[in-house]
Amino acid sequence: MRGSEIAGGAPFAMQRLGRRLVVPVPDALDRAGLDALRDAVLAAVSATRARALVFDLSAVTAADSVQAGAVAAIARMARLLGARVGIAAMRPGVAAALAALGFTPDDAVTARTVDDALARLG
Length: 122
Known about the structure:
By secondary structure, the chain is an alpha/beta fold. The protein has 4 helices and 6 strands; from the N terminus they run E-E-E-H-E-H-E-H-E-H. Strands 1-2-3-4-5-6 form a 6-stranded mixed beta sheet, sandwiched between helices. The longest helix has 18 residues.
């Protein structure tokens, strides 16, 4: 991902690639961490006027309904702000948790890698 930079002052190491953001999601975030992730992502999407947002879930080994629900909610909120959303590098347990909440491929582009998600989002 050449030409990237860290999105301004975020507590999460978001990479900015033009008007696209990549958010590596840490494993096992508690409620406060999920709230901080939501606030940071939405602020970055708004401030950068991001056209695309990719969640990199490669570090997430498992997700309960609260964690999966938070990612799904942030994805929906980012879409309301005008960003197309991708989810990359999901493990089977995370996919199962998202599916159990009614999250479908219509809600976000899904891909095996961040690069694939970025390519699909344009």
